[in-house]
Amino acid sequence: MTAGPLECLPERCGCGYRFVGGEERVGEPVAHQQWELPLVVPDVREWRRLRLVCPCCGKPVVAELPAGVSLSPFGPRLHAHVAVLAGVCRLSREKITELLLDAYGITVSVGAVDTMIRLSGRSSSWPTPSLYGADASGAGAPRFGLRTLRARRQSGLA
């Protein structure tokens, strides 16, 4: 978005005269432009997956996410941004977490950054529940987080 030009009047002349704005204008104004990045505000979306009891069998069932919504708590643009920061800019995972917090106010763990970087080279951006045998209630769905990553590393899975 481009704002219109703002006019700046000189305050006073070298001789001491104070300008009030009604004086004669001469020549073209001297233009000064300043470029600025737009304010970036994270777009946080929340899907509330309702859990209903089946009237036939009494089993609780959790709603599926809409098509195109991954299990990742981070969207595709954030995944891409992290991949560029790591791959092109060669920033460490720690520096990426600092940058995301400072620039966007987004708190991301080092483990989550690592996962986004690893997944950035794959064709599908994030695993779906069906890959893990999760049922409609969400049972069997993987848990992603720092504790899980530590446990997987200790067991030799990560």
Structure characterization notes:
With 158 residues, the protein is mainly alpha-helical. α2 crosses α3. It has a domain at 71-133 and 142-155. It has a two-stranded antiparallel sheet with strand order 1-2. It has helices spanning 76-87, 93-104, 110-120, 146-155; strands at 51-53, 60-62.
In what order do the strands lie side by side in the largest sheet? 1-2
Give the total of beta strands.
2
Distance between the termini: 46 Å
Mean pLDDT: 84
What portion of residues belong to β-strands?
under 5%
The computed structural class is mainly alpha
Q: H/E order of the elements?
A: EEHHHH
The major sheet is characterized as: 2 strands, antiparallel
C-alpha Rg, in Å?
Answer: 27 Å
Amount of helix: 25-40%
The low-pLDDT segments are none
Silhouette = elongated
Number of helices: 4
In short:
28% of the residues lie in helices and 4% in strands. With 158 residues, it is mainly α. Strands 1-2 form a two-stranded antiparallel sheet.
Structure keywords:
158 residues; 2 strands; two-stranded antiparallel sheet; mainly alpha
List the helices and strands and how they pair.
Blueprint: E1 51-53, E2 60-62, H1 76-87, H2 93-104, H3 110-120, H4 146-155
Antiparallel strand pairs: 1-2
Helix pairs in contact: 1-3, 2-3
